[in-house]
Design brief:
alpha/beta, about 40% helix, about 170 residues, five-stranded parallel beta sheet, Rossmann fold, two-stranded antiparallel sheet, 7 strands
Length: about 170
């Protein structure tokens, strides 16, 4: 099982243990890592049965002003930006301990400006890969309703009503 981490994160796969497959033929990604996981599956020649996308980064419904403000905030105070970002990831619940890597501005730019396309998902489905998408109804990072609408034609979508960006429900 290959797992791709979210923006500025590492070793967070344990948050998704209740849903995650451990098969050698599954690929998963969380948030920004969901983008990487989907691209990996679409380009791989290896056998992959399932692609699991946990709270996939979905900012294509956000305004240009929102995206520019995020990048500006990151540029002005990277540490403060990341602190606030992680707090929002766990809202409306208490923040939990996570491990981090130091992201670059280009990573944030790629996250914010990535556009999921029907072509990519159709290519993955045509390979015989089953796509599963997990979304939290209390997600303060992405528009979970818009993501659900977009992914539903291509995937089995699990909507965790009280889940946040990490799908935590407490």
């Amino acid at each position: 099982m290959k797992f791709y981490s979210g923006f500025s994160l590492r070793d967070e796969a344990h948050f998704f243990a209740p849903w995650r497959y451990t098969s050698d033929y599954s690929v998963a990604g969380f948030s920004y890592g969901a983008i990487e996981a989907a691209l990996h599956v679409s380009q791989s020649d290896r056998r992959i049965d399932t692609l699991q996308l946990f709270s996939p980064a979905f900012f294509q419904t956000q305004s240009e002003a929102f995206k520019r403000a995020q990048i500006l905030g990151f540029r002005r105070n990277q540490e403060g930006y990341l602190e606030a970002f992680m707090t929002r990831c766990f809202e409306p619940y208490a923040r939990r301990e996570t491990l981090h890597v130091r992201p670059q501005e280009e990573d944030l730019r790629r996250l914010l400006y990535y556009v999921w396309t029907n072509v990519l998902l159709e290519r993955i489905v045509a390979r015989g890969v089953q796509i599963e998408v997990y979304l939290g109804g209390q997600d303060a990072i992405i528009d979970a309703e818009a993501a659900r609408e977009f992914f539903t034609p291509f995937a089995t979508v699990y909507f965790i009503k009280n889940g946040n960006h990490f799908l935590v429900q407490e």
